[in-house]
Amino acid sequence: xxxxxxxxxxxxxxxxxxxxxxxxxxxxxxxxxxxxxxxxxxxxxxxxxxxxxxxxxxxxxxxxxxxxxxxxxxxxxxxxxxxxxxxxxxxxxxxxxxxxxxxxxxxxxxxxxxxxxxxxxxxxxxxxxxxxxxxxxxxxxxxxxxxxxxxxxxxxxxxxxxxxxxxxxxxxxxxxxxxxxxxxxxxxxxxxxxxxxxxxxxxxxxxxxxxxxxxxxxxxxxxxxxxxxxxxxxxxxxxxxxxxxxxxxxxxxxxxxxxxxxxxxxxxxxxxxxxxxxxxxxxxxxxxxxxxxxxxxxxxxxxxxxxxxxxxxxxxxxxxxxxxxxxxxxxxxxxxxxxxxxxxxxxxxxxxxxxxxxxxxxxxxxxxxxxxxxxxxxxxxxxxxxxxxxxxxxxxxxxxxxxxxxxxxxxxxxx
Length: 415
Hints:
Elements: E1 2-6, E2 17-22, E3 29-30, E4 35-40, E5 45-49, E6 54-59, E7 66-67, E8 72-78, H1 96-99, H2 106-109, H3 119-127, H4 146-160, H5 193-208, E9 211-219, H6 221-238, H7 244-258, E10 264-267, E11 270-273, E12 279-281, E13 283-285, E14 288-290, E15 293-294, H8 302-317, E16 331-335, E17 354-368, E18 371-385, H9 391-406
Parallel strand pairs: 12-16, 16-17
Antiparallel strand pairs: 1-8, 2-4, 2-7, 3-6, 4-5, 6-8, 9-18, 10-11, 12-15, 13-14, 17-18
Helix pairs in contact: 7-8, 7-9
C-alpha cells in the first residue's frame, strides 16, 4: 500500500515553504516517526516524519522546490521495511528458530531489549558513546527520538558543569562555508528563508520605528552571592540550576507592570497596552536568531522561567520549536554576553516597543561608598520606540531592572 507524504499544515501567516533536505532516498527502509525531509518556512524549519514503517518510494518534490500546505512530497510503500532492515550490517540471518516467537524468561533475559532507533539517533548515540538504554524515549511505544538524545546530553552537561558563577562562554563557531582554493576565491549562496525573513524584520525595525537606546550598568555581586547561598537548595527542589537569564526575565516582568508604555505596541494609529507580559528570549542557532515566547511571565516563578528557557534553548538548537512558540510577544530580552559582547545596541522586534540587551559580566574597578573596589559588572541596554516610550520612562524602566537585580531579596525565589 502506498502512503503519501504531505506538507504539514502551515499557519495563515506562512504562505509556502521550501524543501531543504531529504534524509532518505528511494528504496531505503524507513521506520514510523523517522525523519524523512526538512522543509523551511520564513520562520522555522519543519521536520516531516514517516507516517508508517515501509520503504521510501518516489520523491516528488526535490530539494529547493517551493511547496504549500498539503502538497505531496513523496510516497512510502507501507509494510515493506522488514525486507530491508534499517541496520543491514547488523541484520541477523533468518533461521527457523529466529522466526519462532517466544516469551523471554525475565530471569534469563537480565535486561530489557534495546528500544528501536533511527539512523540519526544511532549516529548521535555512537558519537557520544551512549547506549539506547540510557535514554528515555518520548516517541510512540517508547521510541527514542533525536531530541531525546539531545535533551539527555544537555542535562548531562548541565549536571557536570562547575557550580561557580558563570564565566563568558566561548562563542559558538559559525557554520562552515567551503570556498574553493585559488586567488581571491568567492562563493555565492542564496539566503535561507529564515535568514531572508530576519533581514526583512531588522530592516523594517530601523525604517519604521523611532528607535533610541539608553544604557546602564549592573553590579552582579549581590545576585551572585544570593545565588551561591541558595543554589544547592534550589537545584535540589527544582532539578535545575539557577542562571542569570531568569532574574532578568523576572525583573523585566515586574518592571513592565510599572511602565505599561514599554509593554505596549502601535497598531496603525492606536496604541495597544498589553495587560500581560509575554517575554521573548532570543536564542542563537545555526540557522539564525529565533525568539521563543515565555507567555504570562509575570505569573512565573524563577524556577518556571529557568525550566522554560532551558527547554526552549534545547528545542531551538534541535529545530523543534513550533510556530506557536515563536509567535507574539510583548517584550524581548537578548543576551550578547554569552558571546563576549561588552556593549551593543539591540534592534527592536516590531511591533514591540522595547528590547533589553544583556552583556558580558566582567570584573571592573568601581566606586562604592567612596572606595574603589573590584566588582563583577554588566552593561545593560534598552532600545525603545520613541513614538510610544518617552526618554524618562525608558531610563526609569532600565533603572528599575538594575535595582531588582542588585537587590535580589526583593524578588520571590521559590526555594
